Amino acid sequence: MSLPFHTYMLRCADGSLYIGHTDDLDRRIAEHNHGQIPGYTASRRPVELVWNDTFPTRIEAMEAERKLKGWSRAKKQALIDGDWDLIRQLASRASALRDGQGPSTSSVPSPSQDERCLTQLPPVIVLVRPQLGENIGKAARAMLNFGLVEMRLVAPRDGWPNPSAGPAAAGADVVLEKAQVFDTLAEAVADCAHVYATTVRKRGVTKPVLTPEEAAQAVHRDVGRSAFVFGPERSGLETDDVALARAIVTVPINPEFGSLNLAQAVILCAYEWSKQADLAQPTVEELLPPAPQEELEGMIGQFTALLEPTGYFRPASRAAATRRTLRNMLTKPGWNHLEVRTMRGVLSALAKGPREDASDT
């Protein structure tokens, strides 16, 4: 029996919350507390485990981590407290981290059966009769860039697995490992209520035509699984393939050059879906705050003191305007305290002049 994978939440020394996943929870927390995990927690020790859940596969643990990172601070705290009523109030859609289950290893009570998923299940990406393993790998990379991990292959030309897919995936191995193979498109989308065929032509089938953005909005809005279907690299989807779809997805594109490769088409749909999926964004918490005004005043004063003897503020009639312009220039960047300190060190070095013991060695 394989070991479970953990998704966990830590409270750092500064009160911020950190979310990650691991296959060895005790070891990972010890590594965080000893500063062996570079990055966010290394400078915010000690840390405290405040919530965790177990999952049978790494993919599911990663998906739970991805979702939690997109939650607001209030919703994360509600999860820590086990307050599912508050979670439902804060969520845009009522549900739980996993279909029909709440956290299993923490003290958080299980939610009711109708609290199915805090976000709709991500769409599946279906590649119909893909021709090159490299293109399958590039499509997997595009998927994982934007949080999608479920790929389905319909009758790949060179069979599956394909040795050319791995290198092209550039690390998106989790997508390739989970990929499923089907004989027909109908089988591949059998569990999907909403199927979107990506094609530049209607192929003689009358269907609603949506942009990737419109289709992504529908995926988030509609209940049930959704699938984006992509055709072979050379010919695209056949008429019978499109006939299975609910709607056609067409990218507004230059009519004089409408050629998209498979990975490009996948990434457009994945990106539009991700815009509403609460993927983790680079956080401003890791950036130092702007320096207090007192430190800026000290730097401006040092600039002024160095410039005065040089006659920089002459003529006297322009001195006030020149000083104002200098102040505006120095306050505009929003320097943090390290930047202010560095600049003041530069000014001090310039004021002292060359060191007598300076050399090129």
Short overview:
This protein has 14 helices and 10 strands.
Describe the structure.
The protein has 361 residues and is of the alpha/beta class. It has three domains: 5-90, GIY-YIG endonuclease; 124-274, Alpha/beta knot (3-Layer(aba) Sandwich); 293-352, no CATH class. Helix content is 39%, strand content 13%. The chain has helices spanning 25-33, 58-69, 73-81, 84-90, 133-145, 165-169, 173-178, 185-188, 212-221, 239-243, 262-274, 293-307, 316-331, 337-352, and strands at 5-11, 17-22, 48-55, 124-128, 151-154, 180-182, 194-198, 209-210, 226-230, 247-249. The strands form two sheets. A seven-stranded parallel beta sheet has the order 6-5-4-9-7-10-8. A three-stranded antiparallel beta sheet has the order 2-1-3, with helices on both faces. Strand 4, helix 5 and strand 5 form a beta-alpha-beta unit. The chain starts with a strand and ends in a 9-residue tail after the last helix. Residues 92-119 have low confidence and may be disordered.
CATH H-level superfamily of the largest domain: SPOUT methyltransferase, trefoil knot domain
Strand content: 5-15%
Q: How much is the average pLDDT?
A: 83
Structural class: alpha/beta
Shape: extended
Distance between the termini: 62 Å
Query: What's the number of structural domains?
Result: 3
Percent range of helical residues: 25-40%
User: Would you list the SSEs in sequence order as H and E?
Assistant: EEHEHHHEHEHHEHEEHEHEHHHH
Main beta sheet strand tally, sense and closure: 7 strands, parallel
Tally the beta strands.
10
- Which residues form runs of ≥5 with pLDDT under 50? 92-119
CATH architecture of the largest domain: 3-Layer(aba) Sandwich
Total helical segments: 14
Stated plainly, the CATH topology of the largest domain is called Alpha/beta knot
Which class of the largest domain in CATH terms?
Answer: Alpha Beta
Structural Rg: 28 Å
Strand order of the largest sheet: 6-5-4-9-7-10-8
